[in-house]
Amino acid sequence: MIEYEKAIDLFAAGKKEEAAAALLSLIESHPDCADAYESLGMIYYKMGRLDEAIDWTTRLAAMRPEYPMAHTNLSIFYMKKGMKERAEEEKAKAVVLSFGGK
């Protein structure tokens, strides 16, 4: 998807705000683009906007419950916020999913 690639190129060029805006626009027109949700969560994380990172990654986990990276990223985000117990819960979910569990 060309819009996604443009957003990633913006991020790679250090234009985080523009990349986030491009991903939000992409999600608006393609609400099923899971890669956009994951990337948006990571961009917000890199910007220090943890609540937004958690919000978009939680949406990804709801959209793709079988996707372990959503829970891995949530674990990282929660740990960064000092929410160790919640981080461990998300890490456990990621491990189970990575072994084919539900």
Concise overview:
By secondary structure, the protein is an all-alpha fold. The chain has helices at residues 2-12, 16-29, 34-46, 50-63, 68-80, 84-98.
Describe it for me?
- The protein is 78% helix and 0% strand.
- The N and C termini lie far apart (29 Å).
- The radius of gyration is 14 Å and the shape is globular.
- The chain contains 6 helices and no strands.
- It has one domain (2-98): Serine Threonine Protein Phosphatase 5, Tetratricopeptide repeat (Alpha Horseshoe).
- The model has no long low-confidence stretch (mean pLDDT 95).
- With 102 residues, the protein is mainly α.
Features:
single chain, 102 residues, mainly alpha, Serine Threonine Protein Phosphatase 5, Tetratricopeptide repeat, globular
